Amino acid sequence: MIEVNGLTKRFGSIQALRDVSFKVEPGQIVGFLGANGAGKTTTMDIMCGCIGADSGSAKIAGFDIMDQPLEAKRRLGYLPDVAPLHLEMRVADYVTFAARLHKVPAVQLRKQVDDALDRLSLGDVRHRLVGNLSKGYRQRVALAQAIVHNPEVLILDEPTEGLDPNQILHIRELIKSLAGQHTIILSSHILSEVQNTCDRIVIIHNGVVVQQGSVEELARQAEAGRIYRMRVANNVDQLARDLGAINQLSGVRLTDPKNGELEFGLAKAADEQVITEVSKVVVNGSYGLRELTLKTHSLEDVFFQLTH
After folding, report:
1. Which residues are registered as beta bridge partners of 8?
2. Could you give the CA distance from residue 116 to residue 96 in angstroms, rounded to a whole number?
3. Average pLDDT over residues 122-148
4. CA-CA distance, 95 to 119, in Å (whole number)?
5. What is the per-residue pLDDT for 222?
6. Which of 45, 63, 131, 243 has a CA between 20 and 30 Å from the CA of residue 163?
7. Residue 233 gets which letter from DSSP?
8. With pLDDT > 90 as the criterion, what percentage of the chain qualifies?
9. Is 2-213 assigned to CATH 3.40.630.10?
10. How far apart are CA 275 and CA 141, in angstroms?
11. Sequence-distant (≥ 6) Cβ neighbours of residue 200 within 8 angstroms
């Protein structure tokens, strides 16, 4: 349903995307995960035809967004990172305006607007000004404009950005309720958001797709290594630098510097010599080991190791 193949994009001297490729199958919700500045919005802007790629292609329901833009855009709904709202319009009027832009036939217009408002629980505020709504309700209105023409594909860029915890839960449930009726790709820099909403995850870092797979597949990857938590009495900053110089350790990071805590990853295939080397570093540096424990694996660990 969505096919991205070899997208490359440069802005002046900045290489924003390098050979980005992935697929989204019909009915799936796929999370496009990466830190701020990783290339998520650039990829989505290309997928929607807002900007062009230097090379590569993006297809929506089989139609190339560059070669067949009208056919592709008829089949997609887009929620950009900054919602395209007219604050001076009433909710129903704004969604009707969006439906007309999408060329919804006049005989179907009222029904499709009502359906979009009902699906996003906006019936009670349909006559209110968009500018008088809370941020959570404004985001629902923005989602309504993206689905009012019943697109096959939804592209949602950071749909919960800036919302409070309760609003995030509401938007997350609304997105889940759209699954099956639409193929959805949503971007986020928050792992828990993607993990709780999506079937598959695509991780991008510095413009490159570094990993992709189902939530279960990435969870199995998390189990392929060991994450240790260490607490020492002295100079935890220097200890982190010393451990970072050991080749077979990964993802050395300070987790609670005030209490002398850090974490590091160790591949299952690592030999005993690495353990010996870690022990020597701690003893010779007189760091005063207080605690060393094996941490439960999580997708957070995979994400951190892939993007640091």
Report:
1. 55
2. 10
3. 94
4. 13
5. 61
6. 45
7. S
8. 59
9. no
10. 55
11. 24, 28, 29, 30, 31, 212, 213, 214, 215
User: For position 171, what pLDDT does the model report?
Assistant: 86
CATH number of 223-307: 3.30.70.100
Helix (H, G, I), strand (E, B) or coil at 127: coil
Is the Cβ–Cβ distance between 209 and 22 less than 8 Å? yes
Q: Specify the DSSP element, H or E, that contains 118.
A: helix 106-119
Domain with CATH 3.40.50.300 in the chain: 2-213
Position 223 pLDDT exceeds 70: no
Q: Copy the structure tokens of residue 189.
A: 């820099």
Angle among Cα 51, 40, 133 to the nearest 5 degrees reads 90
In the chain, residues under CATH classification 3.30.70.100 are 223-307
How far apart are alpha carbons 306 and 207 in whole angstroms?
13
The tokens describing 208, both together, are 């490159």
Chain segment 24-74, per-residue pLDDT in tens: 999 999 999 998 899 999 999 999 999 999 999 999 999 999 999 999 999
The beta strand positions in 164-297, using DSSP E, are 183-188, 200-205, 208-214, 225-232, 249-256, 261-267, 289-295
**Residue 269, pLDDT score:** 62
If one counts every other C-beta atom within 10 angstroms of the C-beta of residue 112, the result is: 19
Query: Measured between alpha carbons, how far is 125 from 9 in angstroms, rounded to an integer?
Result: 41
The DSSP code for 287 is -
